[in-house]
Amino acid sequence: MGNFIDSKYVKKICAITMASYQHGWDERNGGNVSLRLTDADLQDFNDINEVHRVLDLGFDAQKLAGQYFLVTGTGRYFRNVIDQPNLDLGLIRISQDGQKGELMWGFEDGGQPTSEFPSHLMSHIARLQFDSNQRVVMHCHPTNVIALSFTQDLDERHWSRLLWKMQAESLVVFPEGVGLIPYMTPGTNEIGEATAQKMKDYRVVIWPHHGIFGVGTSLDEAFGLIETVEKAALIYSQIGAQGGQIKQEITDDQLRQLAKSFGVTANPQFLTNK
Ligand code: 2HA
Ligand code: ZN
Asked: Which of 24, 156, 228, 258 could in theory staple to 173 by disulfide, Cβ–Cβ 3.0 to 4.6 A?
């Protein structure tokens, strides 16, 4: 038995929020992350046993009833989470009717979950249909990804091909490509629904002029996915800084060979026909 604040879950969220901040992806209160936990994950903690507050979720999350989400707070700074996790993080249990969030731990100075909590929960629901190990949704503001949304057509095939061709690693890490939604107002159920819709086909969804949503089975995996997309976008920016002229590139045949070699299935819609 121990206290939840000393758990590997809190420690890892602290590490990931600090790493994301240090990458420059979370100015001020930018970014949010949620980690799904179950009764079994929490049975060893003696301070997870009562409901401290009940919050309105604003949509029907019944598919997640009884599940717990360790989530960053609205208005909180990723930079600070490591120093005050009991204030900037909360552990929320979804009520049996799916309408409420029950605060079981954290947000000790009155905090509330991120404004993007509905988007997170909707994305968890969408991904759980494909992967019962789905645990993490992460949102942040990676600079080069956002910059691309000004200079490139907002087209999934174009973005996926561009990012795949910036480095050999891209196709291996996101062989399905990246999803894109139109610019929408953040913090609304509408952007959450549009994001979750895309999460049926992709694990990365770009929010033009704003940032990125990435999902995974672990914090490391979701973070690494975002890191790889942002690295590809950074290389594109650097190509621009070197004059912008591309003299040679990874060909579609080489992408096919990559997929074969690493045992992944590249989204066929995003490759040219042989
Ligand atoms: O958490 O990033 O999109 C603040 C945001 C909202
Ligand atoms: Zn944001």
From this structure: 228
The environment of the single-atom ion ligand 2, i.e. residues with CB closer than 5 A, is 211
**pLDDT tens-place string over residues 120-144:** 999 999 999 999 999 999 999 999 9
| CA distances (Å), origin 108, targets 73, 202, 233 | 11, 35, 38
Tell whether residue 52 is among the known ligand binding residues: no
What residues flank ligand 1, with Cβ below 6 Å?
A: 29-32, 114-116, 139, 186
Residue among 27, 72, 88, 115 whose CB has most ligand 1 atoms within 8 A, to mutate: 115
Identify the CATH assignment for 140-274 out of 3.90.1310.10, 3.40.225.10, 1.10.3720.10, 3.20.20.210. 3.40.225.10
- Per-residue confidence (pLDDT) for residue 64, from 0 to 100: 98
Answer positive or negative: Cα dihedral of 247, 251, 257, 263: positive
- Measured in whole angstroms, how far is the alpha carbon of residue 231 from the centre of its chain? 16
Q: What is the mean pLDDT of the chain?
A: 98
pTM over 0.70? The answer is: yes
Per-residue pLDDT at 1: 77
**What does the alpha-carbon distance between residue 73 and residue 270 come to, in Å, rounded to a whole number?**
37
- Respond yes or no: is residue 27 known to be catalytic: no
**Given the residues 27, 108, 116, 176, the one annotated as active site:** 116
Query: Of the ligands numbered here, which is closest to the C-alpha atom of 74?
Result: 1
Region 1-115: CATH code: 3.40.225.10
Distance 178 CA to ligand 1 centre (A): 20
Distance CA 250, CA 259 (A): 13
